[in-house]
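Now for a concrete sample entry.
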Amino acid sequence: QVQLVESGGGLAQPGGSLRLSCAASGFTFSKYAMSWARHVSGKGLEWVSGIDSDGNAIYYVDSVKGRFTISRDNAKNTMYLQMSDLKPEDTGLYLCAKSNYTNYASLDGLDDWGKGTMVTVFS
């Protein structure tokens, strides 16, 4: 069965950085696009970033462009989200998700989810 386990969350000051990881198992990771989403207080569940199966196509929500970088290492069955210049509004539960074959740039195409890792940005 599909299993997605996030890690790397924690407390950061505004302007700081965190690197999230998503360890995947139970499916052929290299054949699937993946996404990060977050549950932010007052906004609900929000799609953040997506990456296709080989890393050639990448998308971000406008609010994180220039600050977050999504990547993946298919040999390690792991996806990453490097977060820089963190802002208080980035605080939330960050979730790793597996995409279907047609949509990894919104919540609509995501069909399996991890439990999340908490990111808190506070000074």
In short: The chain has no helices and eleven strands.
